[in-house]
């Protein structure tokens, strides 16, 4: 026991913060160290400057020497290399130039040698919460193509973006302030082009005309690995609950260091953003006021309360989801859920007792697809089973299937309103927190969580989720929907999957590659039903 505690702390991912010290303890390096630690990583710091700061004033800012700045970075890289870096307050332009060059040479060299990628999140701190100017004149263009994400608030966005390059924006009156949401979106998209990185423009402090009860951020996403192409090259609006509190000192620092900490643990950018936003919301809700000015965020560990998380909508001209829609609820357990491609196997698994089953025809789409779907639907009725049709939602609708299973991509093309009003159950795939939140917005009948383990059944853009994420997904949504784990699940994995408390599992090869699929179904079902979910 002592050993496992020791090794888990030794193995913590190392996340750096390159930022200024806030002597008041609410923001800067101090907030970052607390956040990185709270979210399960080991924090290291390279301090750019000292600030003589309280909750009401910033009285002095003093940069460290160039030698000290460089030496902190080199010293850390030698022994404590990062998996992710958060950059906060930079004290002067020469620090910007020096750091950009260090990222380009030293960090890139390290990444190449180690064969890894290090996420770099820049929070372009320009003003303290008390309103004092910390550094609003920096030119961040040396960071072009070196950052993963930049997280300006709306005031910083206006100061950063070169609006001369976008006449439409200048014409809409955006010389010094961004007036409305459309201005902010244009400016964020422009900044993303100018710095060649993703942009999260935070509306928490100042959301010009957007809703009073929401903290809305604009997420401009470029190309990104590990997530469906559907969620790349798009602009999203992330709307979280606005907590009525003045204790927001350090919220930007907390957000950016939380994003770095979550990315450092292997989560995709989209997930890191929604998790970090939920973390900040929870931190503000439990905030406190140690001085007479704005108070500071509490550290509330990994957010697992769904109400903290933002809803997601698209702001670009691409496809979007219908609002307020709800599908037929499934109250009984799904049971062990076979996903099969042919009718003979489907029939034999129903005969073996399958209560939920899916027809998933991918290869060799034949002329008789409609006939196969009709026969499957009829078999489902004969055996009083929940028969889902994958992909072919029009045919499933036409012939009154019990349910339809759709991937995230299909959600934007299928007629969801028609499916819901036909009282057909809907199962939706998900491969991340981000996709889970999107699925939750259309309240499907169940949500599939995949792929948990490596699979050869299908080429996936995402990495296997693993048991830890599965456990987190169950914590987040397990009381709202039936949750089904899928991907690489076989007899050897059953017990560990059961311990995550996921409700049920869907399998392909564990049955299709068995000599006796019906026998395998009975054996797996018996084991799945008898394993105890408690560890
Ligand atoms: C139960 C279950 N979960 C996930 C999937 C995958 O569906 P989808 O994302 O639509 O991918 P394809 O199956 O169409 O390749 C599923 N079919 N069933
Ligand atoms: C269709 C699908 N979606 C996510 S994983 C997967 C395939 C699961 O197949 P297997 O059980 O053989 O790994
Ligand atoms: Mg599909």
UniProtKB/TrEMBL annotation:
E.C. code: 2.5.1.3
Domain Thiamine phosphate synthase/TenI: from-to ranges: 343-511
Residues annotated as binding 2-[(2R,5Z)-2-carboxy-4-methylthiazol-5(2H)-ylidene]ethyl phosphate: 455-457, 488
Domain of life: Bacteria
Keyword Hydrolase appears in the UniProt entry: no
Cofactor note: Binds 1 Mg(2+) ion per subunit.
Top enzyme class: transferase
Reactions performed catalytically: 4-methyl-5-(2-phosphooxyethyl)-thiazole + 4-amino-2-methyl-5-(diphosphooxymethyl)pyrimidine + H(+) = thiamine phosphate + diphosphate; 2-(2-carboxy-4-methylthiazol-5-yl)ethyl phosphate + 4-amino-2-methyl-5-(diphosphooxymethyl)pyrimidine + 2 H(+) = thiamine phosphate + CO2 + diphosphate; 2-[(2R,5Z)-2-carboxy-4-methylthiazol-5(2H)-ylidene]ethyl phosphate + 4-amino-2-methyl-5-(diphosphooxymethyl)pyrimidine + 2 H(+) = thiamine phosphate + CO2 + diphosphate
Tagged with keyword ATP-binding: yes
Family under the similarity heading: Belongs to the thiamine-phosphate synthase family.
PANTHER family the UniProt entry points to: HYDROXYMETHYLPYRIMIDINE_PHOSPHOMETHYLPYRIMIDINE KINASE THI20-RELATED (PTHR20858:SF17), PHOSPHOMETHYLPYRIMIDINE KINASE (PTHR20858)
NCBIfam families listed in its UniProt record: PRK03512.1 (NF002904), thiE (TIGR00693)
Record protein name field: Thiamine-phosphate synthase
The species this protein was found in: Shewanella nanhaiensis
Gene that encodes the chain: thiE
